[in-house]
What we know:
Shape: globular
Mean pLDDT: 90
Helix content: 40-55%
Strand order of the largest sheet: 8-7-9-6-10
Largest sheet: 5 strands, mixed
Low-confidence stretches: 1-28
Structural class: alpha/beta
Amino acid sequence: MSRVRRVGTAAAVVVALAGTAGCGLRGANQFIPPTEPGSIKPIEGMDGVPVTVGGKNFTEQLILGKIAGIIMQTVGADVEDKTNLAGSVAARQAQLGGAIDMEYEYTGTAWISYLGHDKPVKGRIPQWKAVKKQDLAQNNLVWLKPAPMNNTYAFATPRTTAKRLGVSKLSDLKSLPTNELTFCVEAEFNSRNDGFRPMLKTYGLTYGKDVPESNVTVLDTGVIYNVTARGNRCNFGEVFTTDGRILALDLVVLEDDRHFFPLYNVAPVFRKEFISQHPQLRDVFNMVSKKITTKTMLKLNAQVDVQGRDPALVARDWLVKEGFVSMP
């Protein structure tokens, strides 16, 4: 799974937009499975209302996009699926340009990548409120309540290693001998000013001294999970907290007990014009968001990435299980 944390340069934005302009906005799989109402009921005035649902092109966003599409379909709307867009820049520009009416977005991505802040706001609700206020004022985008789910950076270790070393949180690392402080990280995270070295410093460790350069292996993101699970190159690997491979490989995520990493809570984001016309959608989406926890997303992602299931069916089955919709 890959997710843009920040937009690096203006040139990168131009290149990304040029790529989307040539081919238009498309979704590779526009299937939204049929359902019947559950606790989500048809909304008066929504019957046949056209709505375009967007989303990015990685597993979690595909699932969330299908959840949104099924919700909209259940309340009566005529849904156009434009999920599976090529990255954060394309999805964001589509919504800003009015091509997308709503999508699930991450508070940390908006605050740092889109709104240009260097430092995150501490706390799930304070970060959401800050994003909500600025995005509404600048872009006429309305953020509904955030889910408990937080897809952020973390370090994980095999369960056997966690037991052997007696670690459960990042502050435990300081008590370990140097030879056990071995890490696998991706290149960007290894070099950024809010990445690996500042993280070590936050937890009382110095790169080059407590953690020698030879203790750090730089790998592609997708490789880190398997290498960490094998334990032959590093005890601790950089991961994303909702990646399904954490469950599949029986990795233990160390608690960020000093709250170093930014929060990436997901929330439904609507164009102001659309949500103002259909305010009943607020309660519906807020009801669903309460149930989207980190643990829940881990399991849903694993069904796609490990078991090979279709994201649309994973989304439908979860909504059915929670009673939000029913099978036809």
